[in-house]
Design goal:
This protein is an alpha/beta fold and about 400 residues long. It has 13 helices and 15 strands. About 45% of the residues are buried. The protein binds adenosine-5'-triphosphate. Adenosine-5'-triphosphate binds next to helix 5 and strand 11.
């Protein structure tokens, strides 16, 4: 919902404001580039203006909602509003609010949220809010019985006045927040296509790290649907990252899984994780990535007890980022729905279970190393060199 004639998207960011001016300028530049690419990818007309603190998209009134949605999908953006721009003259702002009220107010409670960034203006935000409230009231009182509710209004009229321009809007669409993609170093994302790993990869992207997706082909224990699920979730993630190539490295792991199933019982799942991590490390060296991200959460599975995570993590020198470590499943499912990966992640992948009847929850490194194939980690390194790039 937007004021009549709105042709601008007002963008707010959050964590960029914790940076020095130099870093903030650099990050705002990245945010703008990413948003420009997203608009182009979605064929939405619009020019992004790189404005200190408040980047703007100038677009057509017909495209303003689509441009707002694109901004709200851009990492670093906290919220975006389709807005009408007017001069900072108070009379003009009130007129724009009256036009907006005529178009959109249809009874119920309302409030005005007025902000002013330039202290040299001849009015302050309280004056403006009060006069705006009166103007809106008088516009609609003949037809409705308007009521002001500052705590939980049905409709909020937003006004933001900056040094040279004012914005009038009705909606603040939430963005992902975080930092612009590309502002941190890349990491290898181990993506199985289950519910968790795409969400974990997204969380790292949200903090600015591009991801290099890696899928371990589990041979007979995985299968075409298992791989298809992983690929589709990466394809969905790539829609948030139009400036990055998100082809998937498919690492061959079928023979190793067969070997682990034949030779190991209890610790098999842990050695398989060790294989994943070492393969991801080798791949990271190859592509110049600086860490590994997985969808593991403390205690969610036997391989994810705190002790087991401690033991398996020893297979790599790289940091393993686990953004979901402290998250409940309910949160992760909600997040998967929000970013759009849930449906594909829950597709029946028909894979064979590698999990043994008796699982290890309390592993120790030494006995695990004695039980697993001596060449497990060399196999992982070799598998990484054989990884193929696949278009998701
Ligand atoms: N075949 C695979 N290829 C790449 N990474 C994998 C694979 N299987 C598991 N992983 C990684 O190991 C983590 C823990 O494995 P787990 O067995 O819990 O995965 P899952 O339940 O199949 O999928 P998810 O964790 O995505 O819900 C995953 O979150 C993912 O990062």
């Amino acid at each position: 919902m937007h004021p009549p004639g709105a042709d601008t998207v007002l963008i707010r960011h959050g964590d960029l404001n914790t940076k020095s001016n130099t870093v903030k300028r650099y990050m705002e530049g990245l945010l703008v580039e990413n948003l420009e690419a997203l608009l182009a990818e979605r064929s939405i007309p619009g020019e992004v203006e790189r404005r200190w603190n408040r980047p703007l998209v100038h677009t057509d009134p017909e495209a303003v909602e689509a441009a707002t949605a694109a901004a709200a999908d851009t990492f670093g953006v906290v919220s975006a509003s389709p807005a009408l721009t007017v001069s900072t003259e108070k009379a003009r702002i009130l007129e724009a609010l009256e036009e907006t009220a005529r178009e959109h107010y249809d009874g119920g409670t309302f409030a005005v949220d007025a902000r002013r960034s330039d202290k040299s203006l001849p009015y302050d935000s309280e004056d403006l809010a009060r006069e705006a409230g009166t103007a809106i009231w008088e516009t609609v009182e003949d037809e409705f019985e308007p009521e002001v509710d500052l705590d939980d209004p049905d409709l909020t009229f937003g006004v933001e006045v900056r040094e040279d321009i004012a914005f009038v809007y009705l909606e603040q669409v939430d963005g992902p927040g975080g930092l612009p993609l590309g502002s941190q170093e890349p990491v290898v994302a181990l993506v199985s296509g289950g519910i968790d790993s795409p969400v974990a990869a997204y969380e790292m992207m949200k903090r600015g790290s591009p991801v290099v997706p890696a899928y371990v082909d589990l041979g007979d224990y995985g299968g075409i649907d298992h791989e298809a699920r992983a690929m589709e979730t990466v394809r969905l993630l790539s829609e948030y990252a139009p400036t990055f190539d998100m082809q998937v490295y498919r690492i061959p792991g079928g023979e190793t899984v067969d070997l682990l199933v034949d030779e190991m019982e209890q610790g098999r799942m842990l050695s398989l994780r060790r294989f994943f991590y070492r393969a991801a490390e080798s791949l990271a060296e190859r592509v110049d990535a600086n860490g590994i991200v997985t969808g593991e959460a403390a205690g969610q599975k036997s391989s994810q007890t705190i002790r087991n995570l401690g033991v398996t993590s020893r297979a790599t020198r790289l940091p393993i980022h686990r953004p979901l470590l402290s998250r409940d499943k309910q949160y992760i499912v909600a997040q998967a729905r929000e970013i759009g990966t849930y449906t594909d992640s829950t597709m029946n992948a028909g894979c064979n279970r590698v999990t043994p009847d008796q699982v290890e929850t309390n592993a120790r490194l030494k006995p695990l190393l004695e039980a697993e194939p001596d060449d497990l980690l060399e196999r992982a390194e070799e598998a990484a060199t054989q990884a193929e790039l696949v278009e998701p």
